[in-house]
Amino acid sequence: MIAAEDRLSAEDIIKAEIITKLEIPFFSSYVQAGFPSPAENWLEKVCDLNDLCIDTPEATYFVRVISDSMIGDRIDAGDILVVDSSKVPADGKIVVVWLNGDHAVKRIKYAGKMVVLHSSNPKYLPIYVHPEQDDFKILGVVTNVIFKPM
Amino acid sequence: MVGLVDCNNFYVSCHRSFDPSLEGKPVIVLSNNDGCVVARSNQAKELGITMGKPLFQIEDVIKAHQVKIFSSTYPLYGDMSARVMGILGRFVEEVEIYSIDEAFLNLAGYDRVYPDRVALAQQIRSTVAQWTRIPVSVGIAPTKTLAKVANWYAKRELMHNGVLELTDPSAIQAALEEFAVEELWGVGHRYAGLLKRNGIKTAWQLSQVHDVWIQKHMTVNGLRLAYELRGTPCRQLELEPAKKKSICTAPSFGRLVPDLATIKEALATHVARAAEKLRRQHSTAGVMTVFLHTNRFKDKEKQYYNSRTVELPHPTASTSELLHYAGAALESIYQEGYEFQKVGVILSDFTPENHRQPGLYSGSLDERLVKLSGVMDKLNTRHGRDKVRLAAQGFCPTWQMKQQWLSPCYTTRWKDILVVK
């Protein structure tokens, strides 16, 4: 007999609802009876490339490169850039910008009121931008470059 | 204190986020099937293009002013919405996602962290703008209804710079005196008419009406509204999204369809979509309704509308099982000789999936079917919608929606991501 004060009333029994699932790595080694797996205390989340490449998911965008203008920075046509719009486009950073009707990837330098966009391929000249007169916006800072080696 | 964050011209802003050349230009977004206008940039509003206008009625304006048109691009809107909501969650603990482009924030208890609420709202605005390039407006007030009112002004009157806080009773009164009663949250067509007939034109007048009259004519919901206008919160933040009680999938056909075979194929796809949604919220359906109709706007054509509701032998979320009954229901209502515009399915009478009871005579659901649907969902999430499907859904659909002006899905499809030189 369960003591009266120990009884659970029906309304206290609430059905657990599983809304999200958390994947936990599974160790497939056989466990001998009596000896728990020594790895069990060391369960960790598997390495996730997102942790490495993305700080701010809400502000991160992927962008495909279609020119060789940044080849000196090991950014080539076909590569995918990870661009973070929450990062400050500080002097000397590689950024994705919108300039007079096009998006482009360039290294940004500030010179007084002017902005200078440098390519890293001698074929392309630096571009001088008047942020107040030109149709100019900074989309974000390039944080990673993804490419497949030949 | 409650904040309401609302994205300005959200769908248009999503397109502008990735294509700044649309800035300052008239832009419209069309409903499913490219039927009517569902979103407009301010420049399009200035041209007199109204919400819900069918496309064919504004073709001249579009040509004359080179209005840029987009078909609804929901993958893009959904992802950008999730980003905006995620950013809001970085500022406050409790965010109620009210719609794809609106969220309520619970600001109670933040006086120490954010002593200046307007400054907080401005910071939210600038963060969302920098991270997503989507402009938002913020209304702050003691109740959700008043926060909506504050937001209305914040969005329309430039002097507020996108943020309006209504806390001072005299400021609230001034705002409500200028606020048309039919613009209020929760005042529909019917109540707007009733209030006008009784000489109640502004939100302020409504807030001053006697409780007894309001309850008599507008039920307890009207009373809640009046209390909210007076500054007493009656609508709490809803933080757990309520599970849907029914799911309806019924996009129009891209053209009028007369034959049963094509309609069946479309219905199979709608059922598959509805079942997917059902499984995503871990429910099973006990009742299914299938309906079929012609185009009501073509009044010269012969009209037909019919529906059939089927009580399922046991609650299920299995696509193949639902399809079986959907097909039978469709056959029972199909009539030859009409040009059909739409077939749809409504699933209802939900029970949680882990709560199923076998039917008394029909036996229980085949567990293998349940597993099969789960596997299909996983494969389709990984490899793309409808990669694995039932043959009934067909191979080259001829009935699909018109989406003539689809924009790239910049954030959800690798082939659509932005390109740079």
UniProtKB/TrEMBL annotation, chain A:
InterPro entries: LexA-like, LexA/Signal_pep-like_sf, LexA_repressor, Peptidase_S24_S26A/B/C. Residues 25-142 form the Peptidase S24/S26A/S26B/S26C domain. It holds the Pfam family Peptidase_S24. It comes from the Bacteria. This is Peptidase S24/S26A/S26B/S26C domain-containing protein.
Automatic annotation (TrEMBL), chain B:
The keyword DNA damage applies. Keywords: DNA damage, DNA repair, SOS mutagenesis, SOS response. This is Y-family DNA polymerase. The keyword Nuclease does not apply. Residues 2-188 form the UmuC domain. Pfam families: DUF4113, IMS, IMS_C. It comes from the Bacteria. InterPro entries: DNA/RNA_pol_sf, DNA_pol_Y-fam_lit_finger_sf, DNA_pol_Y-fam_little_finger, DNA_polymerase-Y, DUF4113, Rev_trsase/Diguanyl_cyclase, UmuC. Belongs to the DNA polymerase type-Y family.
